[in-house]
Amino acid sequence: MTVDVHTHLVPKGWPDLSVACGGDGWPWLRIDSERTAMIMVGSTEFRPIGPQAWDPAVRRTDMDADGIDLQVVSPTPVFFGYDRPADQAVKLARIFNDLTLETLAGDSRFVPFCQVPLQDPDGACAEVDRCRAAGHAGVEIGNHVGDKDLDDAGIVAFLKHCAETGMPVLVHPWDMAGGPRLDRWMARWLTGMPAETHLSVLAMILGGAFDALPPLLRICFAHGGGSFAFWLGRLENAWHRRGDIVRGCSEHPPSHYLDRFVVDTVVFESAPLRLLVDTLGEDRVLVGSDYPYPLGERPVGEVVRKAGFLSADQRHKLLSTNALHFLGRTEQPREV
């Protein structure tokens, strides 16, 4: 039995955002056929999508094929709108959060996560409360807001609110830097995303966010936590040898905080999965897929099922138990 904590949704039928939210240059959906569409940002093609992105029946068929019981469904980060004025981002979040619940139609196999206007901490707290009451089970946030990382006081206040209200948080990299060297070969996704996530974990450690936040915060970093696990030794060494610069606001060495967050398994190979388990522990790694996008894993959970170094108990934790704990659920998923 498997829980997938990292998937995305693109609902159909959202209104003209320039009218509904104000401003211009918003994402919109170009419908090319009954089964194909293109996410557009202004006049630029961003990503082709198919019915997996908007049709629950197609998602359920794929879940059955992969042996998935529960699927966490989060927004696609291009819709975060953190670069917009706060009032526009509030309206945007409401539109997509309501459309998500409408699309999933209360199906118990889907666990909806909402989005919030993270540039407005008070507005973000209000929206996450509204969404929790409406049926969302968690929230997905981007890993930064402009130049503000996750140790920003406003973002820390929002995360504290999530901890106090029991809303799990999925951190997803977004808005990666571009340029001639990074705009080739999807390099922003292949190198920029891991670096962005690594930087965000660093910010929460060295910026003092974990020290300021209650331990009951349930927070997951996508894509295996980026490159953090591989470079933890370098960070630990720098913290001790150049503490005058590196320690920042942290009260303890970086390794002290490894039990404060979890990561998903979107690393595709057994060797990096083993590094995650060895570094973070068997209780801190949970299955994710990045479904339905082509850089995700299919069949979902295959890297865990094929990992020969895992015991049966460890495999069960990664496939099921750890995710249920992250979601704050105690029941066992149903048989598919």
Automatic annotation (TrEMBL):
Q: Which GO terms describe its cellular component?
A: cytosol
Pathway the protein acts in: Secondary metabolite metabolism; quinolate metabolism
Q: What InterPro entries does UniProt report for this protein, alphabetically?
A: ACMSD, Amidohydro-rel, Metal_Hydrolase
Q: Name one Pfam family in it.
A: Amidohydro_2
> What SUPFAM superfamilies does the record point to?
Metallo-dependent hydrolases
Its BP terms in the Gene Ontology are: secondary metabolic process
Report the EC code(s) recorded for this entry.
4.1.1.45
Where does the signal sequence lie? none
The alphabetical list of record keywords is: Decarboxylase, Hydrolase, Lyase, Metal-binding, Zinc
Where does the record place the Amidohydrolase-related domain? 3-328
Coiled-coil intervals, chain numbering: none
Task: Please tell me which top-level EC class this enzyme sits in.
Answer: lyase
GO MF annotation list: aminocarboxymuconate-semialdehyde decarboxylase activity; hydrolase activity; metal ion binding
Per the similarity annotation, which family is this? Belongs to the metallo-dependent hydrolases superfamily. ACMSD family.
Q: How does it assemble?
A: Monomer.
Recorded protein name is 2-amino-3-carboxymuconate-6-semialdehyde decarboxylase
Which organism does this sequence originate in?
Kribbella capetownensis
